[in-house]
Amino acid sequence: MRLRHLWLTDFRSYHQIEVEFPAGLTAIVGANGEGKTNLLEGVAYLATLGSFRGAPVEALVRQGQPAATVRAQVDREGRELLIEAELAAKGRNRIQVNRQRLTRSRDLLGALRVSVFSPDDLALVKGGPSERRRYLDDAAVAAAPRLDAVRTEVARILRQRNALLAQAGGRLSDEVALTLEVWSTKLVTAGEELTQARLRLLDELRPELESAYQRLAGRSARITATYRSTWLDQGLASALAAARTDEIRRRVTLVGPHRDDVELTLDGLPARTHASQGEQRTLALALRLAAHQVVTAAAGTPPLLLLDDVFSELDPDRSRALVDSLGSAQTLLTTAGPLPPGAVPERVLRIADGVVHPG
User: Fold this and answer.
1) Confidence of residue 137 (pLDDT cuts 50, 70, 90)
2) Which among 13, 20, 5, 8 has a CA at the least distance from the CA of 68?
3) pTM score, whole prediction
């Protein structure tokens, strides 16, 4: 898989740009605030249909404009794809592949795969459970795009179920009980499928995670990644039945995959509270590298690597180890400073005042 061309129109800080990418490493350099991350965000949007910074669609449209356009020419296993997304500041977005409009946006998933590394990845270790759940789900969908429908269904069911619990006002009438049972049955089916996908992915990640950490840190370490769930042993149906009284009282769904977590330990101690900042950052990078390897094995080709200013927080040894771990995958790397040790780009792009200049 290779990204050949990218066009951005009224996307974030860009009025209009066109960029060609070589097969290897492209270094994107420029001062902070010049739009380096915006360029990577445009690429990633076509792969995930979302912002890796968590921004809403309207924030991706250049201020004062009704819509933004992101277009990419991709070589996927010898087949040329033209992927286009029109992002509306208000209203519905439009996705096309080879000039054919997709009736479902999720049909785009898998046409372009990316692995994103950013300074915010530290939250995978230091942040709350939602960061680690999103990490698992994103990796699972990248490896098997059909799981996006399951993830979306779980989110839809939870919205409906929580709305019902809120409307019940703390009282379990016969009508509420009947409707709640319908949504609970749906949540059991979709929630258990999503959780099983997470567990399978975690089994594949564990050996890659320990290996990646050793390469980056230059030392061996015992790393565990344990799925934590209050309902898994008894099953979701039983757990929901047991929690019904509390859910009616608190007016929210209290058990399910949306409450689960992954506990990370380093040498027997919780990484979130006991690891140093450097160890936490190395573990976060190892999580991203492990997911990249798992998705590569599932897809048969490596995803496009997007490294957004990750080297500014690393010492030279870890920077070189990360560069050495990237392999032959096409890579886009942004930096406001010198290139990391060992990085030899095929092309350098300099960004200033919303314009991309060949280096």
Assistant:
1) very high
2) 8
3) 0.94
